[in-house]
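During the reporting period the student researcher (J.K.) took over the structure-prediction task from the postdoctoral fellow and processed the backlog of single-chain submissions. One of the processed entries is reproduced below for the supervisory committee.
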Amino acid sequence: MDPIRNPFAPGAGQRPPELAGRERELKAFEVVLERVARGRPERSLVLTGLRGVGKTVLLGELRSMAVRRGWGAGKIEARPDAELRRPLSAALHRAIRDLAVRHRAPDRVEAVLGVLKAFALKASKPDAKLRDRWQPGIDAPATQGRADSGDIEIDLVELFTDVAELAADVGTGVALLIDEIQDLQPDDVSALCAACHELSQSGAPLVVVGAGLPHVPAVLSASKSYSERLFRYARIDRLDRADADVAVLAPIEREEAGIEPEALDALFDVSGGYPYFIQAYGKAAWDAAPDDPITVKDVQVAAPEAESELAVGFFGSRYERATPAEREYLLAMAELTQGRDEAAGTADVAVYLGRKPSSLSPARDSLMKKGLVYSAERGQIAFTVPHFGHYLLGRD
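J.K. obtained the following structure tokens:
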């Protein structure tokens, strides 16, 4: 089959040709947008799930929905080695520019930009030399005495309040989307929760939409005890069989091609219903098929090619980040779970390796910081990447 017409699109954060199985989340966000725009109280939203289930894609779709409704919207990706202030400033700058198109009072927009600039300038250390200080590209003079205390929690509440009021002027709202939210630094998490709490009490039209790994609720609750009531959590999981079939069939049919039922069965078996894997195996099956329709033999021929690509780009890139001690821990997890997507007991890992649990804590904690594993519940540890255990056993 013509590889140029191949509709499948495996890629980090790349929107698939058919966004199947996410109708509930999209409809729920429509309700959030409408309620907030009408001044109704609404909680911010956090999407959680393993890697490869489409959280980043869904986050991008929610941003597009907000923009189509005339909202200001900005998106950032949190990083464990970076403070929130600088990327947040850039995201809100984008959101304010979205709102400025509709606002009839340029002076009002400039005033909020001045507050944003004052907030952003605090990203530079007080003792930094002039040449090393970051200068945000905000075309407005910095305001004095607003969002510039240097305390991220105080400043964020004031900034969110002013940006939300600007959105209220034009009858819309602001959506701040944060990917990899579990990588925020503790002080930034605390400040974000406090700001969301303040906004929820005042009914201000600004919502935060975060996306991260399954342990995000624990990260947020460790920062502020009220966070479990502050956010609405939506678990994003692999697709069921019906939605997985739609994700395969719809793009193929749009290309006026076909796939045999047995081939659909085989694609679901190898992908496990995970959206990223559906795209990877679907693309390989299309390229392997000499004729239309795609057959089960085509899927079988294509599977090793897809697995080889996943081993390098999806699994291998993460495995290479682990130290020898961390790799030993990962392999022990894989062997204990026999390559299944299940949690392993931390005590069981210690027994399996013949080590004291305390001696393994540094490796486990480092793997968690690198986003390779997460604590499913107390005393349990699991891979953040589906099929990672199977990959490790095959590699071994």
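The committee noted the following: Residues 241-318 form a domain with the Helicase, Ruva Protein; domain 3 fold (CATH 1.10.8).
J.K. will present the remaining backlog at the next meeting.
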